[in-house]
Amino acid sequence: MSKPKVLQVGPLTDRFQHNLADRYDVTPLWQQPDPKTFLKMHGAQFELVATSARFGCSAEQLAALPNLKAISSFGVGYDSIAVDVARDRGIGISTTPDVLNDCVADLAMGLMIDTSRKLAASERFLRAGGWLNGNFPLARRVSGKRLGIVGLGRIGQAVVKRSSGFDMDVRYHNRSPVKDSPYTYEASLVELARWADFLVLTCPGGAATHHIVNAEVLAALGPTGIVVNVARGSVIDEQALVTALQNGTLGGAGLDVFEAEPKVPEALFALDNVMLLPHVGSATEETRLQMEELVLANLQAFVERGELLTPL
Ligand code: NAP
């Protein structure tokens, strides 16, 4: 029996490539000399797409895939997929939720602790020989502080669970309150920022959350406040963030995501009150393996039963 055809938009690990090719007749779109022309000529062959939060599937690509039935994406963000277009056409979309909650939440805690206690900055100080000339300046406490979560979903709740070990007081902002949540809902993001010591972003990216953390929100968080972003770079107005950090009107920032990845504003490199990570929220051996397996399991379920295991 011939293998089902899969169009793969962008590369993943060698292991994933191998496992996908074992079960499917895979066309790697990124390896075509001219992917756009390739899609125009051959797009009608494909009913299945494998992609990732990074490479997505655009409206233009969907238009060239008239027979597409399902998209199985690696990662939980879907801002790079033309979801509305896909939904209108009845195309199923799956992501890899839940399996990455723990690692992304662990990283958010790491960013909170680092930016507040200045772990990386004090290590830079030690390595540069600064300790020989005096002590590192005092940092700020993490335990017992106020934690404002923007997006109390799967990852946001995993951050809250971890924060209980730090005796933190929690409030959150979503578009609407979470039913039966014991935490105080704050309808205004500015008010949440005014109340919080840490503002941790765990909401989706995309048009609806574009720059919701703007100059006004950062000013409300204030000179001792810290913003941690493990959501998407687009959620923060990056220029306003740089200005607030440079002027000291914001205390610090722990950032795993940026507006124009892999480009990071150079102005941030000069600041000691930031920790900058190259989008590694889910990047552990264990979690990435589970994410790969879930992409494959979604494809398999769709081929065998016409349904996705973790539909959007
Ligand atoms: P989720 O379970 O869907 O939670 C998202 C939360 O955001 C929900 O509580 C939702 O509540 C809230 N929200 C949605 N739109 C909003 C808006 N316009 N304003 C305010 N709140 C809004 O998603 P998740 O699995 O926790 O993942 C969250 C995001 O994390 C992903 O979309 C992805 O971008 C990011 N992520 C990053 C990494 C990384 O490597 N750094 C890894 C995985 C995921 P309402 O619907 O009530 O508004």
In CATH, the homologous superfamily of the largest domain goes by the name NAD(P)-binding Rossmann-like Domain
| Number of separate structural domains | 2
Oligomer: single chain
Shape: elongated
Helix content: 25-40%
**Contiguous helical run count:** 12
Percent of residues in β-strands? 15-25%
Cofactors and ligands:
NADP nicotinamide-adenine-dinucleotide phosphate
Q: Give the low-confidence spans.
A: none
CATH top level label of the largest domain: Alpha Beta
Task: Indicate the structural class.
Answer: alpha/beta
> What's the main sheet like?
7 strands, parallel
Count of distinct strands: 12
Tell me the series of helices and strands, N- to C-terminal.
EHEHEHEHEHHEHEEHEHEHEHEH
Mean pLDDT: 98
Task: Put the structure in a nutshell.
This protein is α/β, with parallel strands linked by helices. The protein is built from 12 helices and 12 strands. It has 2 domains: 5-97 and 286-305, 3-Layer(aba) Sandwich (Rossmann fold), CATH 3.40.50.720; 101-276, NAD(P)-binding Rossmann-like Domain (Rossmann fold, 3-Layer(aba) Sandwich).
Question: What is the fold's blueprint, element by element?
Answer:
Elements: E1 5-8, H1 14-23, E2 25-28, H2 35-42, E3 48-52, H3 59-63, E4 70-74, H4 83-88, E5 92-94, H5 101-117, H6 119-127, E6 146-150, H7 154-163, E7 169-173, E8 184-185, H8 189-195, E9 198-201, H9 215-221, E10 226-229, H10 238-247, E11 252-255, H11 266-269, E12 274-276, H12 285-305
Parallel strand pairs: 1-2, 1-3, 3-4, 4-5, 6-7, 6-9, 7-8, 9-10, 10-11, 11-12
Bound molecules: NADP nicotinamide-adenine-dinucleotide phosphate.
Residues 76-77, 97, 100, 104, 151-156, 173-176, 202-205, 208-209, 230-232, 256-257, 279, 281-282 line the site of NADP nicotinamide-adenine-dinucleotide phosphate (NAP).
